[in-house]
Amino acid sequence: MKNRHNAMKKTIHSFQYFFCLCILSVTIFIGRSTLAQGGAPMITDDSDTPGDGKWENNVGFIFEGSKNDYRKTFPFIDINYGVGEHIQLKAELNWVAEKGDNLANKFDNITLGFKYSFLDEKEAGFSLSVYPQPIISFNSEDGVKSTAFGVILPAAISKEIAGFGCNFQAGFQVLGKKSELFFGLCIEREIGETFTLLGELHSTFGRTKDLLTTGDEETFFKAGTFINLGTHIKLSEDYIILAAIGKDIESAPISSADANFYGFIGLQLKM
Fold first, then answer.
1. In 3-state terms, what secondary structure has residue 141?
2. 213 Rama class: left (phi>0) / alpha (psi -120 to 50) / beta
3. pLDDT, tens only, 214-239
4. Which residue segments constitute the domains of the chain, with CATH numbers given?
5. Cα 71–Cα 75–Cα 80 angle in degrees, nearest 5
6. Measured distance CA(267)–CA(269) in Å, rounded
């Protein structure tokens, strides 16, 4: 009986977030169309590039986790530069802190890479890009000070559908002993000249391999499925406030200390 009650609470909780996403979609629908962008403050990235000789840099604060177990990233620095109309160079730097740590406790997860957009929506009806990114981590999850190398291999497709900017991304990441598959769908719409509203569904699952302690054991896991709501607030053509908040719909209810959340607040600078 207790298991049935818990399952019912989890189902109702999931429908609450689905309802929130539906409300966002209705709100977005009254706006005007925009190109799919994705990227900060959302988890899902986009297929577009800044343009030749243009900078698109993001600085922000990220919260990931629950009251009992969380990770704060500040400053989060994401630097992007356009080379031609189809190539974007990227550098992402993170200073992270776990629960109990001082802010900016560890410098971790350096990502360097480039995005190549080989299909343009104006010519092909949709845009398509690949985005290989080597990644370096200086802090393993088991607490041992070691350097781990890996790579992120995502692809993204963007298209305007019925006035909505839609972006879908899927990819594979390997870092140390852990490998992950991830996908995300981001929908956005401009509201007037200043606001852009965004809705996102993002999911990750993968496996870890422990050769040192267990011989050759693989553990499969589901990292979570997040529904996030976000916004861009344009202060000028060069400065945009970025904000997002969301929850892992597979984690505990909102009132629980084990409920997992995602939050982002930051600023985008274009040059």
1. coil
2. alpha
3. 455 566 666 789 999 999 999 999 99
4. 2-270 (2.40.160.40)
5. 115
6. 7
